[in-house]
Amino acid sequence: MSTELQELLDSNKQWAADTETREPGFFSRLLKQQTPQYLWIGCADSRVPANELVNLLPGELFVHRNVANVVVHSDLNCLSVMQFAVDALKVKHIIVVGHSNCGGVKAALLDARTGLVDNWLRHVQDVRNHHSEWLESIAVEQRVNALCELNVLEQARNACQTTVVQDAWARGQEIVVHGWVYGLHNGLLEDLRITAASADQVAPAFQRALAAVKQRYEAARLQPAA
């Protein structure tokens, strides 16, 4: 086993050279400014590389990641990222992004004990508990992905309710919050339509998006087997 990770350092050199060849002066320009329009709050899963999924270069997407893309009002790390993105970088969009077959969501759904992260996943279990009756009404094999989507909706709503976003809206700053889910099986992002650009849009946007998620899974349940 390598102890120096030389293969990664070599890959970095190749990437830097290729980038500079493709866009001469890229790094010198990047050094002078950071002006992303988007804050991506996503899962720490290594299969969900934020910049690559939306084909954006370094400097074009501000990113925060944690297990199961959670946004909670006690997480000063996430809130600090949000405040810097909103107050200093003046991003226009905050996108909470979950993904299918999320290991953290699955552990929360099944009450799997894995260690310290169990305490963090209590936030996702709160989502599960709130929607438990509906989750139990759909097929077992659909529940992980359904909870992944419900979790995106709840965490996007949490983002809207942070003091960072609420204060920005109160002073008239343009910020739109979105909730998306990424399909590991097809590489595609799906907009779950919880989209809010002001405080009074949050509740109706959440209810519409929640109804749409439930309707989609209900339609799948009623679809006759092939």
Structural features, described:
The chain has helices at 6-22, 26-32, 50-53, 76-88, 103-110, 117-120, 122-130, 132-135, 143-161, 163-170, 202-222; strands at 38-43, 62-66, 93-99, 176-182, 189-191. The protein is an alpha/beta fold and 226 residues long. The protein has a single domain, classed as 3-Layer(aba) Sandwich (Beta-carbonic Anhydrase, Chain A), CATH 3.40.1050.10. Strand 1 (38-43), helix 3 (50-53) and strand 2 form a beta-alpha-beta unit. Helix 5 (103-110) packs across helix 7 (122-130).
Write the layout of secondary structure elements.
Layout: H1 6-22, H2 26-32, E1 38-43, H3 50-53, E2 62-66, H4 76-88, E3 93-99, H5 103-110, H6 117-120, H7 122-130, H8 132-135, H9 143-161, H10 163-170, E4 176-182, E5 189-191, H11 202-222
Parallel strand pairs: 1-2, 1-3, 3-4
Antiparallel strand pairs: 4-5
Helix pairs in contact: 5-7, 9-11
EC number: 4.2.1.1
Binding site for Zn(2+): 43, 45, 99, 102
Catalytic activity: hydrogencarbonate + H(+) = CO2 + H2O
* CATH-assigned fold name: Beta-carbonic Anhydrase, Chain A
Instruction: Give me the Rg, rounded.
Output: 19 Å
Strand-residue fraction?
5-15%
The H-level CATH homologous superfamily, spelled out, is Carbonic anhydrase
Q: Look at the helices and sheets and give the structural class.
A: alpha/beta
Largest beta-sheet characterization: 5 strands, mixed
**Number of separate structural domains:** 1
Please give the order of strands in the largest beta sheet: 2-1-3-4-5
Q: What gap, in angstroms, lies between the N and C termini? A: 49 Å
What string, H for helix and E for strand, traces the elements in order? HHEHEHEHHHHHHEEH
Number of strands: 5
CATH architecture: 3-Layer(aba) Sandwich
What would the average pLDDT be, to the nearest integer? 95
Write down the overall geometry.
Answer: globular
Spans with pLDDT under 50 lasting ≥5 residues? none
Helix content: 40-55%
For the record, the CATH class is Alpha Beta
Distinct helical segment count = 11
